[in-house]
Amino acid sequence: MFFFDKLRKFFRKAVQWIDVKIVRIYIDQRFWKFENWPTEKYREHYHINREDLRKFYPAVNPDVAFEELDIFGKHLVDIHSEYLYRYPFPTLLEPRHFLLINRQDGKIIERSRSGQFDPWGADMTTKPSTISYLLPKDTLKVDRVVVVSRSMWFNYYHFFFDALTQIVQLDKYGIDGEISIVVPEAIKDIAYINEFIELSNFLQNRRFVYLKPSQYLEISQEAIVVRDSSIHAETISTILKSIDWSLIPDLNEVPSFVFLTRSSKRLRSIQNSNEIEEIARRNGFVVIDTEKWSLYEQIAFFRKAKNVVGIHGAGLTNIIFANEGQLKLLEIMPGDLNAAFYEHICLVRSHEYARIKGGAINSESQFPLAPSSFEQMLQNYFNIKGA
After folding, report:
1. Separation of alpha carbons 58 and 186, rounded Å
2. For residue 370, what are the domain limits?
3. CA nearest to 200, candidates 164, 227, 253
4. Out of 3-17, 127-141, 197-211, least confident range
5. Are residues 236 and 253 both part of a single domain?
6. How far apart are alpha carbons 387 and 375 in whole angstroms?
7. Are 211 and 297 within one domain?
8. Among the listed residues 89, 122, 124, the one whose alpha carbon sits nearest the alpha carbon of residue 103
9. How far apart (Å, rounded) are the C-alpha atoms in residues 111 and 81?
10. Mean pLDDT throughout 93-109?
11. pLDDT at position 118, please?
12. Which of 224, 191, 229, 184 is nearest to 75 (CA)?
């Protein structure tokens, strides 16, 4: 027994050494790549929201061939598209990136990574380990399953505007609730997801397959891949109508002017945040950080919010809970970022919107904001007399 234990330990260490020294360097780079796989053959529904692209991203021409766009243009076209693909043959789902692999020829099916057309093209993430794919592995078996984006469950914004909106597509296209949706097991521990399930009946008619971090999913009959272009009035309305509003506390008082701050430890924060927040306070704004608030508290607060300044980030997702047409938002954005997500939400919800840009993001994910320009913008946009 002792001999076999030593042998197992030696084998594990040998595999780890081979994985680090050989596989990742020489094999992974060649193994995990997309082929010209005929996804169009399996496309059931597809629509590009060209009007939104023209309005919010005028530099992107949605009418040209997809192949002619640069990588940013391709990404924008993809996230402003809705589609549904059916793959009626045996496939294998890889757990780290939710890559769907055709078991007949071993090729990656591109649309399995919903919301990102090419995960390697912009070095957005490391490739999966070939050795973990080729060696015997923990495998869960199902007949049919729906594949949605893996990463979208782990971010507050993307939960509402990617995970939930993809499930709206399932209802729209009549995908049976008996067909389970595969999701990472880790979402069981995410507070806002559990709270949303308590608050809403939206997910009650859906079943889930919870996939462990090292577990592969073997699909014997059919994999359905779905994507929604997310920020639509009817989609937001569907999500809001599912909430049991009697469970949301009624706050007597919410500050008239709110500055939504962001921890310096988070992606994208203001380099001179103390100075900027002091200007906001001087002009009558209350500085808040919703990162540790429950979903109940965030909904209750933003349901009555009227004047909000916020740094571009997931916390601004809460503007969907404000009563339609009552909110005025000033978004603070790094100078080298062009993203119209919250402007788009404001348009759909009939809120007022403006933005102010700072400098470029540095290596510590911080950007500067000119104090005098910020104060002038603050006073002009919210009609505040000089402090």
Report:
1. 38
2. 248-381
3. 164
4. 3-17
5. no
6. 9
7. no
8. 89
9. 12
10. 85
11. 52
12. 229
